[in-house]
Design goal:
- The structure holds two protein chains of two kinds.
- Chain A has one domain (52-220): Porin, CATH 2.40.160.20.
- Chain A has two helices and nine strands.
- Chain A has helices at residues 2-34, 108-113, and strands spanning 57-58, 61-71, 77-88, 93-103, 124-143, 147-164, 167-181, 186-199, 206-220.
- In chain A, strand 7 and strand 8 (186-199) form a beta hairpin.
- The longest helix of chain A has 33 residues, at 2-34.
- Chain A is flat and about 90 Å long.
- By secondary structure, chain B is α+β, with helices and mostly antiparallel strands.
- In chain B, 17% of the residues lie in helices and 52% in strands.
- Chain B is built from four helices and 15 strands.
- In chain B, the strands form three sheets. An eight-stranded antiparallel beta barrel of chain B has the order 8-9-10-11-12-13-14-15. A five-stranded antiparallel beta sheet of chain B has the order 6-5-4-1-7. A two-stranded antiparallel sheet of chain B has the order 2-3.
- In chain B, strand 9 and strand 10 (164-174) form a beta hairpin.
- Classes of the chains: A alpha+beta, B alpha+beta.
- At the A-B interface, helix 1, strand 1, strand 5, strand 6 and strand 7 of A face helix 1, helix 2, strand 1, strand 4 and strand 5 of B.
Chain lengths: 221, 273
C-alpha cells in the first residue's frame, strides 16, 4: 500500500513541478510587464533614440565549401573537397583559411611496374592553409536587361601544410579566383590555385606543383 | 478487498509502475516542449523589438552605390533632410534603405555626415592606436624558421595589464628530417607599451611531439618538454591589426639526457580585441 501511495504522490508531484516550470517564465514575464511603476507622481517619458554602432549587423566573414579537381603531380587528378573561411579586412583585402582533401591515384611508375610506393592510407592528401587575397577587379555583370550582379576577380597567395605520403609538407599556394555575388549574403566562387611543396618519394627531392580548380559557395555572416 | 490485494501484488509491480508513469512521461514530454516555447516569450518581448536605425542627412547629399566598393556606380542620392535606415555593414560600407524601396551602399566617411534620430551627429568608431593600447585579447599567425625547419604558429594571448600578458600557441614545424607539433604557454612582459615599436620579453614552457620523416630508415617519434626565453617587438599596423616579430631560444629536455638548444625566429600579424 505504501508503494502505491508513494507512486501516486510522486506522479502528482511531477505534475506539479512540470506545471510550475511550464508557467514560470510566463508568470515572471507577466509580473514584469504588469509591475506598478515605482516612481514619483510626475515621470516624464524621455525615450532616447540613441544610435548604436554595435547594433548594426556586420557581415565581414565568409564561410563555405568548395569542390573541384586537384592534380597531384605524378599521382593523377582527382576530386577535391574543402572548406573555406574568409575575413574581409577592407573592401580590397581579405584573409582566407582553407582546408581541403583529395585522394591521389597511382603514379605511372607504380602502374607500369605493378608496385606500390605508398600505402592507400598515405595516398589521401589533406592540406590546410592561410592565404591573403586582394580583390583586383570589382565589377558588375549584367544578365539580360534588368539584372546585375556584383563580382570580384581576386588574386590570392599564402602558405600552409599538406599531409601526403606519410609526411607533413610545407606548402605555398597562389592563384586567382572569381567571386560572383548572387545575392548580398551568398557568393559563388571559381578558384584556380597552385599548391607547391617538396616531395622526395624516390630518394630525390623535387618541387611538386599541384593545380586545383574548384567551384564553391560561401555565405556572408 | 480483492482490488486492494491486486494493487498489493508484487509481481505486477513493474507493469503498474510503467502504466502509472508512462502517461506522466508522455504528457511531460509534451509539456516540456510547450515549456521551452514559453521560455521564448521574454526573448520575443515585443517591447524590445529591433528596428533598423534611422539617420538623417546633413550634407548636401549622400551618394548611394550599387555595391560595397568605391568603383561601383552611384545610382541614387539622398538629399539633405531626408531620412534613411541602416540595414547592415560590410567592411567600411553600410547598406541603407531610403524611401522604402531604394537600397544601396554608403561609405563610412559619408555616413558620418548625418544626424541620429535624437539629433546628434553620428559617431562611427574608427579603430586607432588608442584601442590598440587598451587591448585585452590578441590572436594571430606567425611564420618563420625553427633551426632550419619552417614553423607556422597560431597563437592567442590575454592581457592582464598593459605590460603583462599570457600567451598560448600551437605550432607546426616542418623540416627535412622530421615534422613536429609544439604547444607552448608563456608569459610576456612589455615594458614600454606606448612606444610605436614596443619590445617584449617572453618566458614559457611547452611540449613538442616530433615525428621523423617516413622516408628515413631509423624513424623515431618522441615527445619532449621544453622551456623558452625570447624577445620580440610589436607594432600597431592599421584598424585591428598589429605586426609582430620575435626571436626565441628553446631548450628541449629529451629523455636521453641530451638537451637540445634551438633558436627560432618568427614574424607575423595579430588581431586584437
Amino acid at each position: 500500500m505504501e508503494s502505491r501511495v508513494w507512486r501516486v504522490l510522486l506522479s502528482k508531484t511531477l505534475y506539479i513541478i512540470i506545471g510550475f516550470a511550464f508557467f514560470m517564465p510566463s508568470i515572471s514575464f507577466a509580473v514584469e510587464v504588469l509591475k506598478p511603476q515605482e516612481s514619483s507622481v510626475i515621470q516624464p517619458e524621455v525615450k532616447r533614440n540613441e544610435f548604436k554602432e554595435s547594433k548594426i549587423d556586420t557581415e565581414n566573414f565568409e564561410l563555405g565549401f568548395y569542390t573541384g579537381f586537384m592534380s597531384v603531380e605524378d599521382f593523377g587528378t582527382n576530386t577535391v573537397y574543402g572548406l573555406r573561411l574568409a575575413y574581409h579586412i577592407t573592401e580590397d583585402i581579405f584573409v582566407e583559411a582553407a582546408y581541403g582533401t583529395t585522394t591521389a591515384d597511382r603514379t605511372s611508375f607504380e602502374r607500369l611496374n605493378n608496385v606500390s610506393l605508398i600505402t592507400d592510407a598515405q595516398r589521401e592528401l589533406t592540406y590546410y592553409n592561410v592565404s591573403f587575397g586582394y580583390n583586383l577587379f570589382m565589377g558588375e555583370v549584367f544578365f539580360g536587361r534588368s539584372t546585375a550582379f556584383n563580382t570580384a576577380l581576386y588574386i590570392i597567395a599564402g602558405g600552409g601544410s599538406t599531409e601526403f605520403a606519410g609526411d607533413d609538407r610545407f606548402t605555398m599556394n597562389y592563384g586567382m579566383g572569381y567571386r560572383f555575388l548572387s545575392s548580398d549574403w551568398l557568393a559563388m566562387h571559381l578558384d584556380v590555385r597552385d599548391h607547391v611543396f617538396d616531395i622526395d618519394l624516390l630518394g630525390q627531392t623535387k618541387t611538386a606543383h599541384n593545380f586545383e580548380l574548384t567551384i564553391g559557395a560561401t555565405i556572408f555572416f | 478487498m480483492i482490488r486492494r490485494r491486486d494493487f498489493l501484488k508484487s509481481d505486477n509491480n513493474d507493469k503498474v509502475w510503467r502504466c502509472s508513469f508512462m502517461p506522466v512521461i508522455g504528457k511531460s514530454y509534451f509539456l516540456f516542449v510547450l515549456m521551452l516555447m514559453t521560455w521564448l516569450l521574454p526573448v520575443m518581448d515585443i517591447r524590445a523589438a529591433e528596428e533598423p536605425q534611422s539617420l538623417e542627412v546633413i550634407d548636401p547629399y549622400l551618394e548611394m552605390h550599387t555595391g560595397p566598393g568605391e568603383g561601383y556606380p552611384v545610382f541614387h542620392v539622398i538629399e539633405r533632410g531626408q531620412k534613411f535606415e541602416v540595414i547592415k555593414r560590410r567592411t567600411d560600407w553600410f547598406k541603407v534603405r531610403v524611401k522604402k524601396d531604394k537600397i544601396g551602399w554608403v561609405d563610412r566617411a559619408q555616413m558620418q555626415q548625418t544626424l541620429t534620430a535624437s539629433g546628434e551627429r553620428t559617431k562611427l568608431k574608427k579603430l586607432s592606436a588608442g584601442d590598440y593600447s587598451g587591448r585585452s585579447w590578441e590572436a594571430g599567425l606567425l611564420g618563420g624558421d625553427f633551426k632550419g625547419a619552417r614553423v607556422m604558429t597560431v597563437y592567442t594571448g590575454y592581457y592582464f595589464t598593459e605590460n603583462f600578458s599570457t600567451e598560448l600557441s600551437l605550432s607546426q614545424i616542418i623540416g627535412g628530417f622530421s615534422s613536429s607539433t609544439f604547444v607552448n604557454v608563456g608569459l610576456m612582459l612589455e615594458p614600454f607599451p606606448e612606444w610605436p615599436v614596443s619590445p617584449f620579453f617572453t618566458l614559457g614552457t611547452g611540449i613538442i611531439e616530433t615525428r621523423s620523416r617516413s622516408s628515413l630508415v631509423q624513424s623515431r617519434d618522441r615527445t619532449d618538454s621544453s622551456s623558452h626565453v625570447g624577445i620580440g617587438a610589436r607594432m600597431y599596423f592599421t584598424k585591428r591589426f598589429l605586426i609582430r616579430f620575435e626571436v626565441k631560444d628553446y631548450v628541449l629536455f629529451s629523455s636521453d639526457n641530451d638537451n637540445e638548444e634551438i633558436t627560432e625566429w618568427k614574424v607575423g600579424f595579430g588581431v586584437f580585441f
